[in-house]
């Protein structure tokens, strides 16, 4: 029994020692566990802080990304609008260039028209001046024609008087017996033969080959006696009446082409009409 109690005592002592050892070992491990828990909590707090910061950065980045996407969409829309405006501007530029070309053509046409109108105005003024001069010359020609007709009448009267005087002299100076057919006497007086009426000539005569009053052109037959050259201005005379002036533009061996100047009375002329040319 004593051994048994001794064993129990030894076992109790051993158990106490083991319990003490276990207690001390448990206390050390608990402290380590506590330190590990505290370190883990600290790490968790740090991680949570970093996670929060990361979440904030992610949110900021998402917001920035959304803004960038919106800005990109707006930039695309602006780019499309700019392209559309550029296309419209190009069309406007092309249209403006075409209008500018058309305007330049119109300006050139207007300038050419203005030059032509100025030239025509100068020609009309010259024609009016020539017409006034031609009218004066026509009046002079008509006066000359009237004087010539008067002179022709006077010459005709003088010629008739001369014929009557010659007949009277022959009757009064020739004896009656010499007036019979059987006499051989000759008084030696020779009556003056009747002189033909002198032909009044104003200028060379020609014929109208073609005439266009609408275009103001006339074509005359050319002869060596006429001797006209481009630029000459002559008066047309028909039946001793001045018709007006023409201006020669072209000549050859057969024809004379001329412009009918304003004031000319050429309605009575037709192809085949005979006229005289007065320089």
Outline of the structure:
Helices cover 62% and strands 15% of the residues. The chain has one helix and six strands; from the N terminus they run H-E-E-E-E-E-E. The chain has a six-stranded antiparallel β-barrel.
Q: What is the secondary structure topology, with strand pairs?
A:
Blueprint: H1 2-173, E1 205-212, E2 217-221, E3 233-238, E4 241-251, E5 255-260, E6 274-278
Antiparallel strand pairs: 1-2, 1-6, 2-5, 3-4, 3-6, 4-5
How would you sum up this structure, described in words?
- This protein has 2 domains: 8-172; 203-279, Elongation Factor Tu (Ef-tu), domain 3 (Beta Barrel).
- The chain has 279 residues and is α+β, with helices and mostly antiparallel strands.
- It has 1 helix and 6 strands.
- The longest helix is centred in the N-terminal third of the chain and has 172 residues, at 2-173.
- A 6-stranded antiparallel beta barrel has the order 1-2-5-4-3-6.
- It is rod-shaped.
- 62% of the residues lie in helices and 15% in strands.
- Strand 3 (233-238) and strand 4 form a beta hairpin.
Major sheet attributes: 6 strands, antiparallel, barrel
The termini sit apart by 192 Å
Helicity level? 55-70%
Tally of helical segments? 1
- Rg measurement, Å: 70 Å
| Strand order within the widest beta sheet | 1-2-5-4-3-6
What structural class do helix, strand and pairing data support?
A: alpha+beta
User: What is the helix/strand order?
Assistant: HEEEEEE
Overall number of strands = 6
The gross shape turns out to be rod-shaped
Mean pLDDT value: 77
Amount of beta strand: 5-15%
Domains, number: 2
The low-confidence parts are 175-200
């Amino acid at each position: 029994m004593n051994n048994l109690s001794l064993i129990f005592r030894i076992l109790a002592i051993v158990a106490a020692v083991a319990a003490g050892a276990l207690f001390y070992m448990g206390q050390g491990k608990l402290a380590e566990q506590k330190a590990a828990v505290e370190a883990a909590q600290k790490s968790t707090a740090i991680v949570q802080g970093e996670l929060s910061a990361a979440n904030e950065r992610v949110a900021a980045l998402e917001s920035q990304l959304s803004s960038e996407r919106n800005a990109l969409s707006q930039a695309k829309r602006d780019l499309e609008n700019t392209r559309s405006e550029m296309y419209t501007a190009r069309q406007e530029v092309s249209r403006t260039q075409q209008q500018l070309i058309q305007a330049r053509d119109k300006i050139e046409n207007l300038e050419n028209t203005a030059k032509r109108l100025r030239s025509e105005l100068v020609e009309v003024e010259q024609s009016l001046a020539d017409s006034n001069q031609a009218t004066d010359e026509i009046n002079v020609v008509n006066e000359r024609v009237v004087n010539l007709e008067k002179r022709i009448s006077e010459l005709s009267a003088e010629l008739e008087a001369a014929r009557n005087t010659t007949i009277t002299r022959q009757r009064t100076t020739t004896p009656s017996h010499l007036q019979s057919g059987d006499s051989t006497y000759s008084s030696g007086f020779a009556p003056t033969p009747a002189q033909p009426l002198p032909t009044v000539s104003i200028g060379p005569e020609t014929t109208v080959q073609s005439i266009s009053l609408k275009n103001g052109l006339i074509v005359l037959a050319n002869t060596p006696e006429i001797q006209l050259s481009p630029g000459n201005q002559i008066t047309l005379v028909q039946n001793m009446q001045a018709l007006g002036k023409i201006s020669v533009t072209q000549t050859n061996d057969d024809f004379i082409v001329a412009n009918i100047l304003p004031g000319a009375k050429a309605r009575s002329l037709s192809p085949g009409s005979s006229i005289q040319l007065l320089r």
